Amino acid sequence: MAEARLGRILKRIATWLAYFGGFMLTAAAVLTVISIVGRSMIWAGLGPVPGDFELVEITCAVAVFSFLPWSQINRGQVTVDVLADAFPPRLRTFLGMAGDTAMAAAAIVIAWRLWLGLGERLPMGSDSLRGLLMLGDRPYYTETTFILRMPVWYGYALSMVGAAFFAIVCVYTVWRAVNWTIRGHEEPIS
Description:
The protein is an all-alpha fold. The protein has one domain (2-183). It is built from five helices and no strands. The protein has helices at residues 2-40, 52-73, 89-121, 127-132, 153-183.
C-alpha cells in the first residue's frame, strides 16, 4: 500500500532529523556548560564563550523544528483523551483526522511565514530567481547577530528544513487519518 510505504520513508527521515535535533540540543547544552564554567573561572584566565547566547538561540530553534516531524508522524502531539476513549472507534478516528488537519494547516502557515522571513534576510539570488521562489526583494544589508556577526539567515535556513518537512509529514498524516477514518479504526504506527 502506497500510504504505508510512504509512511515508513517519512518516519525514517523524521527519525534522523530528530537525531540531528538532539545533537543540536546537546551541543547547545554543552556550550552553555562550558560558558558557565568559563565565567566562574575568570580568575584562571578563562571566560565565557563569546556569543554563547546567540549560538544557543539558533541551535534551539533548529532543534525544535527538527523534532516536530517525528512527533507528528508518531502522533506525539498533546491530545485530550478524557472523553475520547468513551467514543466509538470511527468517531475517535474522525477526531484524530480533524486534529491532523488542523496541525497540517498550522504547519503550512508556519513554513510559509518562515520562508518569507528567510527571504527578508537572505542577501543572495538574482531578482528573477527571488521572484520565482517568492523570496521578495533582496535586503539592503545582511542582518547579523550582535556579538559573532553571524548572518541571521543561517538559523532561518536550517529551521526551514525542519519546518518544510514538518508540513510534508502533516499532509501525510491527514492522508493516513482519512484512510483510518474510512476503515473505521486506527492502525498501529510502524
